[in-house]
């Protein structure tokens, strides 16, 4: 069988652009990437070639090579074989003199968005062409920071003795109760998408003591805000033999470590985004719910014990406590059935939210581990204990006291990158309107 030109072509590169330097003068290299810019100057054509690691200038000369790049569109993918040489260009410390130019894939013209960002595109257009949007260095920087955040979270929790687990996302009954569940047909049965790993993570403390999960969860909420998605990423931990104040301390340390790690490892990314990531001040303020309603009362926002804090209240509290702070000890009746009461003040719960100004980043608390109490709380909240039978069984097998939290990774990313809209920090966000791409 005759091989086609494509089969014969070696598509590999010898170097990523980011590894090249002026000290490699004279060395032959094969690089590949996409053409950001293209300028004809007399008998030469200059290409600006980018790959995921960096950007370089390519000098193209000679009839055959010039013919190759003559009608080349920006963002097309090329492979260049050539030698590193000194450059006279202001922006480049070296350049590559092309010996061979291979066009691997042509980009159409015009493209749906300008990935260089010279022509500004609205967020909807950018999300509709998300893969191309990632060639924009600002957008790529967000996801490099996200990657480094995840690396750091895994390291910190592993070092603290937590084991990473994966719990099911297709479930047979509601994990937390409530109406915001997506339902789906599971062959001839009714199933749901998990809102949270809550029940599984609690059960797992029975055998594994300290666990964490980083995963997508689903909420069928028709919220059109910059902080809500229908599919979001949650970092969840659960630990046996810890109280709520212990897991708050872990959360605070984790946040500080993430900021320190990203500050050090994502220097170019911060430049690209025009931001400076700095370690937050510690310890974070700890404000009880009772203190919070007192503070709000002084600002003319009168609330009684047991009232939920609305967006307007949280915004006011955010002005009083800018940055990170814990809002603790919520009225028990405002918290889910699994949250433990304070032994010396049973209307109050052993719970907390981590706030960044008005924005809720995490919530957690000490859990009930006595099945009799859990059943009573389910009934109080109008939930049917029969629906929770599988879960409750585990509480008869020797369930240790335990605490945990769930942290919204996407919301944390908006704080780190100083970008308001959560859609910017998620590759393919899902909200009530957006199901594609
Ligand atoms: P909660 O429902 O407060 O708690 O969720 C935990 C954190 O997840 C994030 N989050 C969201 N982010 C984006 N879009 C959404 N629709 C969305 N919903 C929630 C928030 C929130 O603080 N089981 C408990 C946690 C626990 O007690 O361990 C729970 O799910 O940042």
Strands in their spatial order, largest beta sheet: 6-10-11-18-17-16-13-12
How many strands appear in the DSSP assignment?
Answer: 18
Helix content range? 25-40%
CATH topology of the largest domain: BirA Bifunctional Protein, domain 2
Total domains, how many? 2
- Identify the quaternary structure here: single chain
What fraction of residues sit in β-strands? 25-35%
Bound small molecules, by name, code or SMILES, are: aspartyl-adenosine-5'-monophosphate
CATH architecture of the largest domain: 2-Layer Sandwich
Distance between the termini: 39 Å
CATH H-level homologous superfamily name of the largest domain = Bira Bifunctional Protein, Domain 2
Protein name: Aspartate--tRNA ligase
Organism: Candidatus Nitrosotalea okcheonensis
Binding site for Mg(2+) 2: 360, 363
Binding site for L-aspartate: 176, 219, 363, 367
Task: Please describe what this structure looks like.
The protein has 437 residues and is α+β, with helices and mostly antiparallel strands. The protein has helices at 5-8, 63-69, 123-128, 130-133, 137-159, 198-208, 244-265, 267-273, 289-298, 311-320, 371-380, 389-394, 409-417; strands at residues 28-41, 44-51, 54-60, 77-86, 94-105, 163-164, 170-171, 183-186, 189-193, 210-218, 231-240, 285-288, 324-328, 341-342, 345-349, 351-356, 359-366, 402-408. It folds into two domains: 5-105, Nucleic acid-binding proteins (OB fold (Dihydrolipoamide Acetyltransferase, E2P), Beta Barrel), CATH 2.40.50.140; 132-425, Bira Bifunctional Protein, Domain 2 (BirA Bifunctional Protein, domain 2, 2-Layer Sandwich). It is built from 13 helices and 18 strands. The strands form four sheets. It has an eight-stranded mixed sheet with strand order 6-10-11-18-17-16-13-12. A five-stranded mixed beta barrel has the order 1-2-3-5-4. Helix 5 packs across helix 7. It is elongated, with a radius of gyration of 27 Å. The relative contact order is 0.10. Bound molecules: aspartyl-adenosine-5'-monophosphate (AMO). Residues 196, 198, 219, 221, 228-229, 232, 234, 236, 360-365, 404-406, 408, 410-411 line the site of aspartyl-adenosine-5'-monophosphate (AMO). This is Aspartate--tRNA ligase. Catalyzes the attachment of L-aspartate to tRNA(Asp) in a two-step reaction: L-aspartate is first activated by ATP to form Asp-AMP and then transferred to the acceptor end of tRNA(Asp). L-aspartate binds at residues 176, 219, 363, 367.
